[in-house]
Amino acid sequence: MPKNFKVALRAGFTGGLSVIALLALGAGGAHAQEADQADQQMSSIDMLNADIIVTATKKKNVENVQAVPMAITAFNADTLQALQVRDLQTLTFSAPNVSLDQAGTSRGTANFSIRGLGVNSSIPSIDPTVGVFVDGVYIGVNAGLVFDVFDLGSIEVARGPQGILYGRNTTGGAVLINTGDPTSDFRGNFRVFYEGPVDSGRGSGNFAAQAVISGPLIKDKLNFKLGGYVNNDQGYFKNLFDGTDFGKASTEIVRGALEFLPSDTVRMVAKVEYFTSNGDGPAGQNHGVYSRDTFDFAVDNRGFYRNEAWFATHKTEIDIGDGQLTNIFGFRDFKSATSGDIDALPVFRFHSETQFNQRQYSNELRYNVRLGNLDLTTGGFWFQQDLGYDEIRRYPAFISPLTQIGGGRQDHEVLGLFVAGDYDVTEKLTLTAGIRWSREDKDAAVTYIRPRPTCSVVAESCPTSGVNPIIPTENNGFTDKRRWENWSPKVGFQYRFNNDAQVYGNWSRGFRSGGYNFRITNARAFELLAGVGGPNPQYAFDEEQVDSFELGVKYRSPDRKLTLNLAAFRTDVKNMQREVNEGSAAGVAQSIFNTADARIDGIEGEGRFALNSNILFTANFGYINGRYRKVLFDLSSDGVVNDVDRQLALPRLPKWTYGAGTVLDFPVGDDKSIMARANWQFRDRFAYTDNNFGWITSADNLDASISYRTGGLTFTLYGRNLLDQVQHGGDTQLGSGAAQIPVFGGPLSTGVNRPFAENPAVGTFSPLVRGRVLGIEVNANF
């Protein structure tokens, strides 16, 4: 995009926002009375402020989000359209105490955190703390989740442990993605957008288009939906190494669905999706060379990522009297390959390549029924996945003369049984109780990532026993299997003052799975801790236990113009499962240990106020305070466990998140309207690594858009991150040995390798997130 055009577009956008907003306000004054009297059609404000139905409770009779006794933020299709949601990361700045970031080292890998519980690694054998469910199907790994989405029915973000209905690995919360179902009438949608940077020194634009058609094949019996999406991103960033655009990506998605209605009591929906995406590796910034508040970076290895996935679901609902039997089957086959410049320098120091395959099957059968005062949900769950992971690390000869290769394979099976009930003691008081039994088996084969002859763990050609032929004093790896079995209970209450106000409280216990580390780069240290050579070696890290206490209030005014939700929580984490980054002469050793017991306290709130059918205000805030109660591991790497470790900041805990927004929507003629939207959100800085060498800086995020709607056609001019805040997908220190390699007349890491608070310029690998983006979108419904 030419520089002059970028400047003109940016000026036109900001000026246009002010002019059109003023015109909208003027139009509102002229038309408000007429609109109130005529009320010819529901305004966008009314649609955004309407009841939002949620599926998180898994009940036959769907519930309004305001009636559910839990902290949940829900987005219906109209809201997602207004927010120009392209992927889950778009919603990071839309809910308190929620970060839906991606791990910058591997494009598309979720790095989600809710209420301070999250992971900070791309190791695929690490189970998530925030479960992601697509059309009711649990996705067993974080890989491949933060890519383009389209044709969405709703997204629900449930905060806090969801272990009863959603199982293990939802200790932080759950993100429920519901794609659009087939319709009984013919309808279609076409959507196209172009967006890109407008600031000098950045890359190029991003074009995407989608088309969806839906309708009946056999009236009242069989409905269909077919959709497609294409994206061509030319790269937002500019690589200072060679001056080329960086961050290129191309994505294609094809999705089909059928809805079969054999009778009035039976409904079946089948969906299948094919996804492929390819592009550049991470835009890594080295903070020993470039400042944290710039988008400057230079890498000599462009890298790449290649992802391909098949995803299919089949859902059957059968009404049986006052109850409903539901069965959901899911299948996913995901393959990826990556290459990244981990030293984030214009010279070769540390490059890494990976290959990852995942195949999963799952089935959930549940029954929900109303028995007098009792609303009962019970069922069973089966999940099985196979994982295979290769990692290759390449260094110059003076660091490590041989390529390092390793990784792991794992067979993973989960069985679960659950029952939950809501009992109406009176018309106003409801008591809740539930419990889930889970049994989990993992059978793993791990090859240490060490200098060795070329091999592939995925292809089962890398040895997992015997000694390394290049380093005879080291073992090649290990095979092991473990079983974890436990009970997850929950008790709570809900008191409804009336249909518009309630108070609720609950206690629940959840677990995050134990497992194996596929990325073991320090073989001797790992085996020492594992007790290799002893009678009972512990190759696996143990599960993490989370106890959550929550008290909340929800209120909506009788005229539905005002909505207020507040929640306070306390989370006690036992055997906290962390990915510890330790510097080594050739890169960073990422080890997984049960490091500590911790307590996290917090409070959060959300509100919205519709002044009338033309003006809507929103606001939210979140506060978190976390501390270690007992430290079990030397987090600071100073050789002892002491107060230095206990005083470290817990990672992934931004103390404050808060924001506000407004939406203006006014008619400007028959079946025509203008909508202007702006939303600002602040997120505090937070530690990224347990030893506090890595930090993510605070950010103010401002999004805005202006839309003109005429009939089924909508034109939108929008901007994201308009304040051009620099953010990073991670912040991991580089190896201590590599930090002393002269680069540009100085060391890779400036000064000594001290924590960020003492030395913000410490050399870290920090993948950049896009800055200011302006775009235009055309959306047609027919």
Describe the model.
The protein has 782 residues and is mostly beta strands. The protein has one domain (3-781): TonB-dependent receptor, beta-barrel domain (Maltoporin, Chain A), CATH 2.40.170.20. The protein is 8% helix and 53% strand. It has six helices and 42 strands. The strands form eight sheets. It has a 22-stranded antiparallel β-barrel. Strands 3-9-10-7-8 form a five-stranded mixed sheet. The longest helix has 36 residues, at 3-38. The radius of gyration is 26 Å and the shape is globular. Mean pLDDT is 87; it is low at 1-40 and 737-756.
Summed up:
With 782 residues, the protein is mainly beta.
Topology overview:
Elements: H1 3-38, H2 44-48, E1 53-54, E2 63-64, E3 72-76, H3 77-82, E4 98-99, E5 113-114, E6 117-118, E7 130-134, E8 137-138, E9 152-159, H4 163-166, E10 173-179, E11 187-196, E12 206-218, E13 222-233, E14 237-239, E15 244-246, E16 249-263, E17 266-279, E18 284-286, E19 304-320, E20 323-341, E21 351-371, E22 374-394, E23 404-424, E24 429-451, E25 477-498, E26 501-512, H5 523-530, E27 544-556, E28 562-584, E29 587-610, E30 615-631, H6 643-646, E31 656-669, E32 672-683, E33 686-687, E34 695-696, E35 699-710, E36 713-720, E37 727-728, E38 732-733, E39 742-743, E40 746-747, E41 764-769, E42 773-781
Parallel strand pairs: 7-10
Antiparallel strand pairs: 1-2, 3-9, 4-5, 5-6, 7-8, 9-10, 11-12, 11-42, 12-13, 13-16, 14-15, 16-17, 17-19, 18-41, 19-20, 20-21, 21-22, 22-23, 23-24, 24-25, 25-26, 26-27, 27-28, 28-29, 29-30, 30-31, 31-32, 32-35, 33-34, 35-36, 36-42, 37-41, 38-41, 39-40
